Amino acid sequence: MLSNKRILLIVAGGIAAYKTLELIRRLRERGASVRCILTKGGAQFVTPLSLAALSGTKVYDDLFSLTDEAEMGHIELSRDADLLLVAPATADILAKMATGMADDLATTALLATDKPVLVAPAMNVRMWEHAATRINIETLAGRGVLRVGPGAGDMACGEFGEGRMAEPDEILGAIEAFFLGEVAPVTPSGGAPGRTRTLKGRKALVTSGPTIEAIDPVRYIANRSSGKQGHAIARALAGLGAETTLVSGPTGLADPAGISVIHVESAREMLAACRQALPVDVAVCAAAVSDWRVGEEAGQKLKKNGGGPPALALTENPDILKTLGEAGNLRPGLLIGFAAETEKVVEHAKAKRKKKGADWILANDVSPATGTFGGDANVIHLIDDSGVEDWPRMSKEEVARRLAQRIAENIAAKG
Ligand code: C5P
Q1: Is the beta carbon of 267 within 6 A of some atom in ligand 1?
Q2: Which of 328, 349, 373, 410 has its CA 20 to 30 A from that of 154?
Q3: What is the Cα–Cα distance from 162 to 7, expressed in whole angstroms?
Q4: What is the reported pTM?
Q5: Residue 222 Cα, ligand 1 centroid: separation in angstroms?
């Protein structure tokens, strides 16, 4: 997907710089080449050696290096790329970009470039909310600078709120979306961001992650779902302009920016949150909902009392997908489920589509050898009333974008 794409990555001085190391690895895995500029502040957090080792090429950090200028001048450096990515983009570098300062190699390259620029802001929540930063962000957006994140969550400084740099997955998603043309190429010198917001004015609901079902106050039944696929779908739908609600079981993922996230634990809580979100134009049930829960949750921690292990009597959980399918005039306009199977994948998924009353089922093989659960790639078979479409192996981000695109086309066709 990113083969032969050249990314000029500018690493500024923020604690989130450590995430950028992982991002470089992932970009290269997808065939992109990455050249890095490290600011003085950035070098306080990651070393030139780590960046050079991961990018497999020289790291640039000095505006006035004669050797660098002989090899590749700063103007050429800023233009010999398909995309400039600033990650982490600190309040300081965003301010410099907004005002056109060029006092080091990074800011000079950013001012000299004629290529699109994507920023991944990272800073303390108060700095992010400060009027100065707000104006800088608006100025940059007005010039066509693209942005991914920040998300909300715990911050390295001990505070909580918006300002966490987007996760490598999200940044990768934004880069892939850009190259797929979902975000029209814009130059830093002018033009409005050209995102094709084909789902603007539409409402989407996505379930993601596992559910956990309490046995007693400290123990629970759970599964291995990471939530990566569901979260990516929510981001892709929001990326096309849909007003998106993500109902998520417990995952290790940060809340995607710009999406209303409702955190739940059990299947019953998930169903209640989904009902609250109706009506919607599309619902994608990507959560791995626990089929069963313990019939009677113990009020106190179960103790070993010499009488042998307790018998756990299980009872069936509500089926969220099926319930949405039976919601009468509140039924989502387009209802999509997943079928995680370990054998007879398409056959079982076809049966599931009928049984659950879904319009589409995305079937995937989750047998341990495939690495789908918790992994970054997926192999999908899309089943609708006209048959089966086999998708090639692709990243979960790509699956999400392809699905969002299909959803947008379907909704547009229905008018
Ligand atoms: O677990 P199962 O294979 O039946 O899941 C298929 C689809 O149904 C998935 O889209 C999943 O999110 C959904 N599901 C649900 N509620 C359940 C079980 C599954 O929404 N209780």
Answers
A1: yes
A2: 373
A3: 26
A4: 0.68
A5: 14
